[in-house]
Design brief:
The complex is a heterodimer of chains A (514) and B (450). Chain A has helices at 14-25, 49-54, 56-77, 90-114, 166-169, 173-176, 212-223, 250-263, 319-322, 360-375, 404-411, 426-431, 462-474, 479-484, and strands spanning 5-10, 30-33, 80-81, 86-88, 118-120, 123-128, 131-135, 141-151, 155-157, 189-191, 200-204, 228-232, 266-269, 271-278, 284-290, 295-301, 303-307, 310-312, 346-348, 389-391, 397-401, 416-422, 439-445, 452-458. Chain A has 514 residues and is of the alpha/beta class. Chain A has 3 domains: 5-154 and 313-376, FAD/NAD(P)-binding domain (3-Layer(bba) Sandwich); 158-309, 3-Layer(bba) Sandwich (FAD/NAD(P)-binding domain); 395-505, Enolase-like, domain 1 (2-Layer Sandwich). In chain A, strands 1, 2, 5, 6, 7, 8 and 19 form a 7-stranded mixed sheet that branches. Chain A is globular, with a radius of gyration of 24 Å. Chain B has 450 residues and is of the alpha/beta class. Chain B folds into 3 domains: 2-137 and 266-331, FAD/NAD(P)-binding domain (3-Layer(bba) Sandwich), CATH 3.50.50; 138-264, FAD/NAD(P)-binding domain (3-Layer(bba) Sandwich); 351-439, Enolase-like, domain 1 (2-Layer Sandwich). Chain B has a 5-stranded parallel sheet with strand order 10-17-11-12-13. In chain B, strands 20-21-24-23-22 form a 5-stranded antiparallel sheet. Helices cover 31% and strands 26% of the residues of chain B. The chains are: A alpha/beta (514), B alpha/beta (450). Chains A and B meet through helix 3, strand 3, strand 4, helix 4 and helix 10 of A and helix 3, strand 2, strand 3, helix 4 and helix 10 of B. Strand 3 (80-81) of chain A pairs antiparallel with strand 3 of chain B. Chain B: It comes from Uria aalge. Chain B: It catalyses: [thioredoxin]-dithiol + NADP(+) = [thioredoxin]-disulfide + NADPH + H(+); H2O2 + NADPH + H(+) = NADP(+) + 2 H2O.
Chain lengths: 514, 450
């Protein structure tokens, strides 16, 4: 018989919703299935996917809360008389953030309704290439058929299940943003001294994950006054999946973590956890191995958070039945340049796809373009080159294009010129803040034209700074063109237009004067 | 400093004629002492005041009453400026540039007379001269203006809190100062003769004004002051301002602690002996016309910066022009300063970054049917939790349909406008088109992705 829908999207996150809404614009009959399997700790959320509920949005808001803590300190220098003590109440922040996220869930449902996209709050799995079996929380079953199917189920945090107690006692980012009470002990007296008691430890494994989630979380938790420790097996320098956005490179990664250390985050490097046990006081005791010293150590914490990578959410889909191929190592769905899987009429976008950046804007763009190709007579493919990103650590890191290492690997160090500068944001002067890690690096081809291959910026508002330059790189910007661009004064971004010291010269790259 | 790199014998004469109220400052010019630097720092102080309010919604708790101490801020700002003055002196010394704190004026061909604070005069000759004397704030020419009013030259080092302030003017200086003073908790009124931010995109200028009004700043429109009298002496004292309507005969009066004049700036070219060497200036504006190599009508005399006719009054433009000029004179380079698509930012409470054409000049130059304007309001994520304005931030780009939908104007109204605009300016230098803009992925979640 005829298929009920022109398009069925499994997964109501950034990619899925964008694709569904775009397809509906073309007058197509579209349906979206979205379902959130509760985390091991029981956390669940509404429509919108990772970004809205347990990703970008709550992360940035909590990062902002932490930044405001710094602003409070700065404000004193700028003449604001704030009576001490100042402290932070987690539940006030969490409530405000969670309310906003819920308003977004609601907004998405309304949008789907407005665009006449049918929404099913069900877990979907394939019965055959055009048939999906949807299951509600209560166990009620619905069968839906569609001409085209897009899988956009994203990923979920991994647990290091080989560590005793990891699953029972640890949380992940899925839970962190929904905690009603502080993950640390009591609201802390924030300054003039950090009087804390127990605290949080986050373990991150850097072999197959980007450290961003963990560093970002550790960063804002520290900023809110919580005693936070990051444990990592290796040092934050190892190579990352080069398909993941511009690989965080050695130099930039260490500048970011150096700053976090001076900011108050503790690091246990070259250590890995062995077990997690619950104490009578309800605190958690973590035992770990210090590979440098060869010793075993323990300490107790209120919260243990795992940030060891994300696994694609494909298990419940029943992909084998229909023959959708996945990467044997990562489990992600293999797609071609048009987002098509190994089965005709079945596509995939977003975090679930192999070899793509795990970012909201790329998922949205890919989803939209896919819908346009399927229903809008477009032939435009998604361009995954030069995707700009930002890591929202206490001192932010924004970048676009190639890392220094990647450029050298691709073109040879003789053909690459790296311009760099250590600068000081004007606002840090009066606030007496340390700008040691505020740094900019631009990687260019050395030959005549000097095309810009990559730009890296560590400093405040890194995302705002990088966005426009990403456009420039898309236009094939060259170093001379950048030098012809007049700076806006006084900003941090203008330092990019003034880059002139090369790494090759060995000269001091500290910006002096106006 | 650039010329010294080429091993030329260079001298710099710098002198600050004190303000009517007796204020002066060190080496570095307007930007460092009474412009960009102190302005941005005090703007930051005001932003931090807002951040304090926001932070409560994010869970930060502290006493309800938070007051701002003007002296603490001003001292910190002046200390930083002092370090910059010092830095410049050291830098000049290190580069073997001779520096004299003296007032220079031409007395004859290739000759300048330098008079220092104590009145001692010396003569210097040089092969080439560069005039970069900049500007100073204009006064109204009404009774009481020089005696009782202050200007931006005085504001940033004012040794007492200005209190209830009347800002006269609608320039970016006026609006930035009004904005930061209000942000520090002061009662501020802005008196405007006609429109806001002349020369800027008027659609955006009005949005800026609206935002300021909604956030507690009063505007008195279509009035000009005719008299300023002192009611009471003090720091600050009390002043009575009388103003007349520009559209009728209505007279109003108001009482303020401080009156800040920001009605424009005049070039410092009238008393430096330009007539003695034949350098032509625009008699009306005092500005110096130059060719595209910054050369005046006298071949060995050049000029850069705010005193140039028909050029932008911005620090980075002056710096760039100065450097390139020297590279051409002594380094054999040919690059000229590119004055097209120079980005700027107005640091009003709601910041405004722009590059390229305003909507009205684009329509004028290319014709309405040939331009397309794309625009959007946006709500910065950081403003959601503290429930700040959800429909005030705004972005607009203007494209030339006839030229591949090339982006010829970029405007953004929102936080960190300067940081956002810089990269877009670079992209416009590369010939950015709408298509390229659309195909560039956004960084999420930031304002710039809009």
């Amino acid at each position: 018989g005829k298929n009920e829908y022109d398009l069925l999207v499994i997964g109501g996150g950034s990619g899925g919703l964008a694709c569904a809404k775009e397809a509906a614009q073309f007058g197509r009959k579209v349906a979206v299935l979205d379902y959130v399997e509760p985390s091991p700790q029981g956390t669940k959320w509404g429509l919108g996917g990772t970004c809205v509920n347990v990703g970008c949005i709550p992360k940035k808001l909590m990062h902002q809360a932490a930044l405001l803590g710094s602003a409070l300190k700065d404000a004193q220098h700028y003449g604001w008389n704030i009576a001490q003590p100042v402290h932070h109440t987690w539940s006030v922040m969490a409530q405000a953030v969670q309310n906003y996220v819920k308003s977004l869930n609601w907004g998405h449902r309304v949008q789907l309704q407005d665009k006449k996209v049918k929404y099913f709050n069900m877990k979907g799995s394939f019965s055959d290439p055009h048939t999906i079996r949807g299951l509600t929380k209560a166990g009620k079953e619905t069968v839906v058929t569609a001409e085209n199917i897009v899988i956009a189920t994203g990923g979920r945090p991994k647990y290091p299940t080989h560590i005793a107690g990891a699953l029972e006692y640890g949380i992940t980012s899925d839970d962190l943003f929904w905690l009603k009470e502080s993950p640390g002990k009591t609201p802390l007296v924030y300054y003039p001294f950090i009087l804390h008691l127990y605290g949080i430890i986050a373990y991150i494994s850097l072999t197959d994950a980007s450290p961003d989630v963990s560093l970002e979380c550790a960063g804002f938790l520290t900023g809110l006054g919580l005693d936070t420790t990051v444990m990592m097996r290796s040092i934050p320098l190892r190579g990352f999946d080069q398909y993941f956005f511009p690989p965080t490179q050695q130099q930039m990664a260490s500048l970011v973590t150096e700053h976090m250390e001076s900011y108050g985050t503790k690091f246990l490097k070259k250590c890995f956890p062995i077990k997690v046990e619950k104490l009578e006081s309800n605190r958690l005791q973590v035992t770990w191995k210090n590979t440098d010293l060869g010793t075993e150590e323990t300490d107790s914490f209120n919260t243990v958070m795992w940030a060891v990578g994300r696994a694609p959410d494909t298990e419940a889909l029943n992909l084998e039945t229909v023959g959708v191929k996945t990467n044997s190592e990562t489990g992600k769905i293999i797609v071609d340049a048009s987002e098509a899987t190994s089965v005709p009429h079945i596509f995939a976008v977003g975090d679930i796809t192999e070899g793509r950046p795990e970012l909201t804007p790329t998922a949205i763009a890919a989803g939209k373009l896919l819908a346009r190709r399927l229903f809008g007579q477009s032939a435009e493919l998604m361009d995954y080159e030069n995707v700009p990103t930002t890591v929202f650590t206490p001192l932010e890191y924004g970048c676009v294009g190639l890392s220094e290492e990647a450029a050298v690997q691709c073109y040879g160090s003789d053909n690459v010129e790296v311009y760099h500068a250590y600068y000081k944001p004007l606002e840090f002067t009066v606030a007496e803040r340390d700008a040691t890690q505020c740094y900019i690096k631009m990687v260019c081809l050395r030959e005549r034209e000097q095309r810009i291959l990559g730009l890296h910026f560590i400093g405040p508002n890194a995302g705002e700074v990088i966005q426009g330059f990403a456009l420039g790189i898309k236009c094939g910007a060259t170093y001379p063109q950048l030098m012809k661009t007049i700076g806006i004064h006084p900003t941090c971004a203008e330092e990019i237009t003034k880059l002139h010291i090369t790494k090759r010269s060995g000269l001091d790259a500290t910006v002096t004067g106006c | 400093q650039e010329a010294a790199k080429y091993e030329k014998k260079v001298m710099v004469l710098d002198f600050v004629v004190p303000t009517p109220l007796g204020n002066s400052w060190g080496l570095g010019g307007t930007c460092v002492n009474v412009g960009c630097i102190p302005k941005k720092l005090m703007h930051q102080a005001a932003l931090l005041g807002q951040a304090l309010q926001d932070s409560r919604k994010y869970g930060w708790q502290f006493t309800e009453q938070v007051k701002h101490n003007w002296m603490t801020m001003t001292e910190s700002v002046q200390n930083h400026i002092g370090s910059l003055n010092w830095g410049y002196r050291v830098s000049l010394r290190e580069k073997n540039v001779t520096y004299e704190n003296a007032y220079g004026e031409f007395v004859g061909p290739h000759t300048v007379k330098a008079r220092n604070k104590r009145g001692v005069e010396k003569l210097y000759t040089a092969e080439r001269f560069l005039i970069a004397t900049g500007e100073r704030p204009r006064y109204l020419g009404i009774p009481g203006d020089k005696e009782y009013c202050i200007s931006s030259d005085d504001l940033f080092s004012l040794p007492y809190c200005p209190g209830k302030t009347l800002v006269v003017g609608a320039s970016y200086v006026a609006l930035e100062c009004a904005g930061l003073l209000a942000g520090l908790g002061l009662h501020v009124t802005v008196m405007v003769r006609s429109i806001l931010l002349r020369g800027f995109d008027q659609d955006i200028a009005n949005k800026i004004g609206e935002y300021m009004e909604e956030h507690g700043i009063s505007f008195i429109r279509e009035f000009v002051p005719i008299k300023v009298e002192q009611i009471e002496k003090g720091t600050p004292g009390r002043l009575k301002v009388t103003a007349r309507s520009t559209t009728g005969n209505q007279i109003i009066e108001g009482e303020y602690n401080t009156v800040l004049l920001a009605i424009g700036r005049d070039a410092c070219t009238r008393k430096i002996g330009l007539d003695k060497v034949g350098v032509k200036i625009n008699e009306k504006t005092g500005k110096i016309p130059v060719n595209d190599e910054e050369q005046t009508n006298v071949p060995y005399i050049y000029a850069v910066g705010d005193i140039l006719q028909d050029k932008l009054e911005l620090t980075p433009v002056a710096i760039q022009a100065g450097r390139l000029l020297v590279q051409r004179l002594y380094g054999g380079a040919t690059n000229k300063c590119d004055y097209v698509n120079v980005p700027t930012t107005v640091f009003t409470p709601l910041e405004y970054g722009a590059c390229g054409y305003s909507e009205e000049t684009a329509v004028e130059k290319f014709g309405e049917e040939n331009i397309e304007v794309y625009h959007s309001h946006f709500w910065p994520l950081e403003w959601t939790v503290p429930s700040r304005d959800n429909n005030k931030c705004y972005a607009k780009i203007i494209c030339n349909i006839r030229d591949n939908e090339r982006v010829i104007g970029f405007h953004v109204l929102g936080p960190s406008a300067g940081e956002i605009t810089q990269g877009f300016a670079a992209a416009m230098k590369c010939g950015l088109t709408k298509e390229q803009l659309d195909s560039t992925i956004g960084i999420h979640p930031v304002c710039a992705e809009v």
